[in-house]
User: Which sequence fits this backbone?
């Protein structure tokens, strides 16, 4: 069973939200998960409506069934100090280097070093056990960099191991890659049913597979229901104004003046205007609803085009051959209640 779940996706697809929902989903039934942030945006704190996360593992939520979700915002500078202490016993000297600005300088001029530290910290949490030999966390979920950078981010330790042939750096890099390329790790891709996110998802999965990094599932985020049934999408085709006008008349919006007069007589009202007819100055014709027909048809055409595009993109994702999961768009935005709702939806769709 996978224990490190790396969540990536094109910017704007909601990968942080999906990572948070996944951490909650994996923590149900009394399990314990660690949600890791590596980009320093404090997105996790915002989602869980808590204060900014420090560089320490802190419980931020309780999942259904009593499970616990912890969170950690990994800071590259602090991780480097840990690294220097762990392998070179440079605790005091490392703190002195930080005061001199050397730590910040090192992590800034060497982006690869930052990735080594970030992935290493996450993999350390994967391997960590208590005194009885049991894992501290049942699962670790990483809110990782976007698709354009995810393969290099995860594969950086392979490059480091090749550069440093011996010593603690070489051994650490190999240990990290053993976790990342093992069955313990899966990378999940978050996408939208739009052309660019789907293309980046497909390209990212191909790169991960070529690098030998396991890929898990595809989460299709912010899905929207089809307002029109399949058989009704043709209503957006040209030449349907008459059918729409008839439907509006049947709904009591405009229609023939005679029908309005008869309705008014039956209800005891003045027969001067059709039921649903607009006041003076409205569009003339069979009824004031004529002015609604073209805007409604335009909306229907746009909706039909979107539905057809989403069908095509969904088929492309299915053809990749990975499990897919769908999370609906929450019109009111994702608050804490919405996050639990998304976690529940993930659980319903099977193991991820």
Assistant:
């Amino acid at each position: 069973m996978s224990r490190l779940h790396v969540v990536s996706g094109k910017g704007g697809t909601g990968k942080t939200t999906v990572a948070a929902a996944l951490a909650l989903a994996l923590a149900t039934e009394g399990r314990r998960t660690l949600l890791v942030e590596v980009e320093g945006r404090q997105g996790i704190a915002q989602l869980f409506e808590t204060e900014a996360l420090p560089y320490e593992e802190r419980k931020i939520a309780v999942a259904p069934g009593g499970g616990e979700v912890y969170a950690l915002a990994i800071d590259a500078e602090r991780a480097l100090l840990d690294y220097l202490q762990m392998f070179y016993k440079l605790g005091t000297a490392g703190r002195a280097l930080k005061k001199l600005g050397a730590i910040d300088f090192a992590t800034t001029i060497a982006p690869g070093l930052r990735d080594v530290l970030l992935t290493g910290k996450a993999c350390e949490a994967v391997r960590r056990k208590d005194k009885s030999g049991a894992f501290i966390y049942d699962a670790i979920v990483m809110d990782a960099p976007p698709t354009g950078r995810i393969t290099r981010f995860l594969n950086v330790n392979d490059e480091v191991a090749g550069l440093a042939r011996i010593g603690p750096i070489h051994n650490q890099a190999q240990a990290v890659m053993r976790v990342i390329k093992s069955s313990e790790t899966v990378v999940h891709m978050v996408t939208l049913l739009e052309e660019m996110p789907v293309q980046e998802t497909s390209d990212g999965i191909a790169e991960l597979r070529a690098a030998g990094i396991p890929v898990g599932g595809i989460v299709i985020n912010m899905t929207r229901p089809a307002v029109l049934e399949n058989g009704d999408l043709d209503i957006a085709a040209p030449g349907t104004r008459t059918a729409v006008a008839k439907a509006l008349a049947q709904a009591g919006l405009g229609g023939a003046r005679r029908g309005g007069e008869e309705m008014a007589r039956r209800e005891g009202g003045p027969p001067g205007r059709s039921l649903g007819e607009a006041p003076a100055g409205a569009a003339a014709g069979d009824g004031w609803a004529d002015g609604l027909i073209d805007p409604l048809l335009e909306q229907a055409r746009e909706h039909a085009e979107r539905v057809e595009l989403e069908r095509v993109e969904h088929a492309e994702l299915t053809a990749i051959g990975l499990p897919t999961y769908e999370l609906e768009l929450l019109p009111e935005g994702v608050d804490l209640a919405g996050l639990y709702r998304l976690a529940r939806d993930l659980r319903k769709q099977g193991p991820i």
